[in-house]
Specification:
Elements lengths: L2 H29 E5 L16 E5 L10 E5 L5 E9 L5 E4 L10 H4 L7 E9 L2
Antiparallel strand pairs: 1-2, 2-6, 3-4, 3-6, 4-5
Length: 127
């Protein structure tokens, strides 16, 4: 392989690497969000403290009981809860575990359709 061929191969490899990196960044931006809980106040889920940064999967393959999720209530507000029991229709009952922190009332939400869940918390980062 001569020098000209080596340079051409190196240029192709660089372009391929850039295309791969850009594709990965687009996929990550499309699927995941990094959200920060408010600094002031409290968290309705004991797993996360106020001000925590949460990595959220907006398109998980499946929802499971005990997943910590974001859900929208009838009034359009977004709430942090975890999934409790699942009924025969595949709908979930939501829960919070911090009675001193005002969160959404499970009775208000009722049984939540998985299509109405906004994202699953993967992990807390920092704070």
């Amino acid at each position: 392989m001569n020098i000209a061929q080596q340079k051409r191969l190196l240029r192709l490899m660089r372009r391929g690497t850039m295309i791969f990196a850009l594709s990965a960044a687009l996929y990550m931006g499309h699927r995941f969000d990094l959200l920060k809980l408010p600094e002031l106040g409290c968290s309705p889920v004991s797993r996360f403290s106020p001000g925590a940064r949460l990595l959220v999967d907006r398109r998980p393959q499946e929802w499971r009981s005990d997943d910590c999720v974001f859900v929208s209530s009838v009034d359009g507000a977004v709430h942090l809860v975890f999934l409790g029991s699942k009924n025969e229709d595949g709908h979930f009952w939501t829960q919070t575990d911090m009675p001193d922190c005002p969160g959404v009332d499970a009775e208000q939400l009722g049984w939540v359709n998985p299509d109405d869940l906004l994202g699953r918390v993967i992990m807390a980062i920092g704070h």
